[in-house]
Amino acid sequence: MDPKYLDEMLKECTHKDFVFGSRYQKPGGGSDDDDLITSLGNFIFTLAGNILFNLKISDILYTFILGKTNSFRELKLYNGDFRICVEIPIKAKLKKMTYVCLPSFERERIGGKKKVNPLKDGLLILSEIVKYFFKR
């Protein structure tokens, strides 16, 4: 994540509970690290979140997020894996918290290769979405 976006995110966060960075919001969003599989998965999961929970988000799997401490505490987050990507925006929406998406460019990974296993982690993310859909 590029820290140059933090000033704008901080400004927006004074009026919102959360600010979500987005690689797919134009103009200005993009990624040097995304590949076909991860971008397709993100498209599908973002679409599911927007349809099932009426989210207004353009990049559900990107955890470049700035939020108020009290808002994060109120979410009572419990996932320590990739499911947290969908847990945060879905819980924020269900709790009627305010948020905005801002374009962000993801730089190329510095520390090696991705830790995501598209099939295993995709199934975990899908199970989290389904859980919240039937839980509400």
Radius of gyration: 14 Å
Q: Could you give the order of the helices and strands?
A: HEEHEHHEEH
Number of domain units: 1
- Give the class from helix and strand content and strand pairing: alpha/beta
Number of strands: 5
| Helix count, DSSP H or I runs of 4 or more residues | 5
Principal-axes geometry comes out as: globular
Characterize the largest beta sheet: strand count, sense, and whether it forms a barrel: 3 strands, mixed
Q: For the record, give the distance between the C-alpha atoms at the N and C termini, rounded to a whole number.
A: 32 Å
Poorly predicted runs: none
Strand line-up in the sheet with most strands = 3-1-4
Query: What level of helicity do the residues show?
Result: 40-55%
The residue-averaged pLDDT reads 92
Give the percentage of residues in beta strands.
Answer: 5-15%
Task: Describe this protein's structure.
The structure is a single chain. The chain has 136 residues and is α/β, with parallel strands linked by helices. It has one domain (3-135). 46% of the residues lie in helices and 12% in strands. It is built from five helices and five strands. The strands form two sheets. A three-stranded mixed sheet has the order 3-1-4. It is globular, with a radius of gyration of 14 Å. The mean pLDDT is 92.
